[in-house]
């Protein structure tokens, strides 16, 4: 009799996977005598002899009494006996009958390994998927968006309610959902059978994540993961310390300890640099004093670039630490023929001169300019040099030279970005509106703009950037699905909502600006006004509607279509019963600072 649902059985048959293990395959885990410890974690010391790692690098230093031999995912699982040896301690009580075997252990090894894989989080779950402006504390969260070539493959299965779009561009560290296991090491501590399946499945071990590199045992775990992943490409996320260097005062010994751990992690990973596919190295929490040592080896110590698999690289710093060696790292990384995504901070000006490295920039698809000032001419040149760019995050557009103040837009050619679908920009210069006047991005689908500049001479000047955004959207074939706007002018925002470019919008964020009756009235979905008919996710800053009925009408008219309503500050002008009724009909409601 089948133990699986008919739908699962049909899928197994379609894939050619047997519903039951083949004859001779184990149905029972091996017998474990009383007193044997199943949990076998690595030692708390990173010191392991080279002889041990050469002999059998996929195994920990200590060996359990009944450890199951290593096997590949394509080979049969090790044979086990349901009956204990008569001379084993407590053998009679440890005999496991067939009917007592957990149903999950009856599954084929391949299917059990696939289940194990989905218990582990994507690497990007440990990093905020939102774009965070490192200087101004602004966060842009696209809950829906492209899972395309500009994102990591592993980021496509993040299963959290209305997750932010995983764009593979790291920002703040976040804690993963409890629904995920923190590490594949947990699977090896359940029973010997699970340990054998886990160790024999390389795809469980090729994601090396150290979000808080503060214990020597993490180096040993990294060694195990590198060895057990066989030759699979490696996805690496390493943060040098869990402490904020710019906030928390730390003594010299602690900083030296953190820097030494980071150096030890690099020594583990660098011999396998040819296998790196995605790498994020965050040393932003280490101060200049703690990074006096050379964190990165000389360029000659890196492997040759011909065989590199590196597709995505990010090296994050708080200040100017390790400028020389970091430049050597980027010279090596940008020489990868597969490089597609880069995250650059303020120390890498040489990389923003694409004319000096046309071959490298021609293939780049995603650029995150993090914690840096980017000039207008610099940004326009970058777009022209990257014809394949799909994702661009600018933090932030600002004055970088006297040339920016002397720009004659009339003589500048337009910056055509035919593949750009996601643009996130923080503006901190009065002339920032010229960027949108010169931008031609017909495939733009996700747009976030934060007008942060406080240096405008008058109110008219302050509104020019939003008028430029409006003109860009109106004069092109753009059809947005996500639009984030901060510090906008409401009268211009009302005109933007009327544009055809926004009628496919599914996610709208209007923050750091008042949301009043006029805007609420426009968003009422009825026979007369049908703006944004596909809106599913609405985020508002201060909801200051004076008429309770207008806001309630807007909410109730979109019940069934609107799935998420997030309000940062809601005044007294609302009917709680209306919100409760909408919530009962499927609306997910987030209310902050609400009386």
TrEMBL record:
Q: Region (Disordered): which ranges?
A: 38-67
Q: Bias category Polar residues: which stretches?
A: 46-65
Concerning InterPro entries, the annotation shows: LRR_dom_sf (IPR032675)
Specify the domain of life of the species encoding this protein.
Eukaryota
Supply the name of the protein. Answer: F-box domain-containing protein
């Amino acid at each position: 009799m089948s133990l699986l649902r008919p739908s699962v059985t049909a899928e197994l048959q379609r894939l050619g996977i047997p519903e039951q293990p083949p004859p001779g395959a184990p149905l029972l885990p091996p017998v474990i005598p009383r007193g044997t410890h199943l949990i076998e974690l690595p030692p708390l010391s990173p010191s392991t002899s080279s002889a041990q790692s050469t002999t059998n690098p996929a195994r920990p230093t200590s060996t359990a009494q009944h450890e199951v031999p290593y096997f590949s995912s394509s080979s049969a699982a090790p044979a086990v006996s349901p009956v204990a040896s008569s001379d084993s301690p407590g053998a009679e009580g440890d005999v496991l009958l067939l009917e007592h075997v957990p149903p999950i252990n009856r599954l084929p090894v391949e299917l059990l390994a696939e289940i194990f894989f989905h218990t582990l989080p994507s690497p990007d779950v440990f990093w905020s998927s939102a774009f965070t402006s490192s200087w101004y504390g602004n966060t842009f969260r696209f809950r829906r968006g492209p899972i395309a070539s500009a994102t990591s493959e592993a980021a496509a299965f993040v299963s959290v309610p209305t997750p932010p779009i995983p764009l593979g561009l790291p920002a703040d560290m976040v804690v993963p959902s409890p629904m995920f296991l923190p590490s594949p090491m947990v699977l090896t501590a359940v029973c010997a059978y699970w340990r054998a399946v886990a160790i024999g499945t390389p795809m469980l071990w090729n994601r090396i994540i150290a979000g808080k590199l503060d214990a020597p045992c993490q180096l040993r775990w990294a060694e195990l993961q590198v060895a057990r992943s066989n030759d699979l490409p490696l996805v690496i996320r390493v943060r040098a310390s869990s402490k904020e260097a710019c906030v928390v005062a730390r003594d010299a010994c602690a900083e030296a300890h953190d820097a030494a751990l980071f150096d030890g992690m690099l020594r583990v990973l660098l011999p396998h640099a040819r296998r790196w596919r995605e790498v994020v190295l965050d040393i932003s929490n280490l101060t200049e004093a703690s990074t006096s040592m050379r964190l990165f080896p000389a360029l000659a110590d890196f492997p040759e670039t011909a065989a590199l698999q590196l597709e995505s690289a990010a090296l994050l710093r708080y200040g100017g630490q390790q400028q020389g060696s970091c430049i050597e790292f980027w010279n090596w990384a940008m020489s990868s023929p597969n490089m597609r995504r880069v995250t650059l901070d303020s120390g890498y000006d040489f990389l923003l001169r694409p004319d000096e490295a046309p071959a490298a920039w021609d293939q780049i698809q995603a650029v995150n300019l993090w914690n840096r000032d980017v000039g207008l001419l610099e940004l326009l040149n970058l777009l022209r040099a990257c014809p394949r760019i799909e994702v661009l995050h600018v933090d932030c557009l600002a004055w970088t030279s006297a040339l920016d103040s002397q720009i004659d837009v009339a003589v500048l050619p337009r910056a055509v970005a035919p593949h750009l679908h996601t643009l996130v920009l923080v503006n901190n210069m009065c002339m920032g509106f010229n960027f949108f006047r010169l931008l031609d991005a017909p495939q733009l689908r996700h747009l976030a703009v934060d007008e942060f500049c406080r240096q405008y001479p008058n109110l008219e000047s302050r509104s020019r950037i939003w008028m430029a955004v409006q003109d860009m959207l109106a004069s092109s074939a753009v059809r947005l699905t996500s639009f984030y706007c901060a510090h906008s002018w409401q009268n211009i925002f009302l005109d933007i909502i009327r544009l055809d470019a926004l009628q496919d919008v599914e996610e709208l964020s209007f923050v750091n600006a008042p949301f009043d009756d006029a805007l609420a009235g426009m968003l009422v979905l009825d026979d007369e006004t049908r703006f944004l008919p596909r809106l599913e996710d609405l985020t508002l800053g201060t909801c200051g509607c004076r008429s309770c009925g207008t806001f309630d009408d807007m909410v109730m008219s979109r019940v069934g279509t609107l799935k998420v309503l997030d309000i940062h500050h809601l005044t007294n002008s609302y009917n709680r019963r209306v919100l409760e009724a909408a919530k009962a009909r499927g609306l997910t409601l987030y209310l902050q600072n609400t009386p």
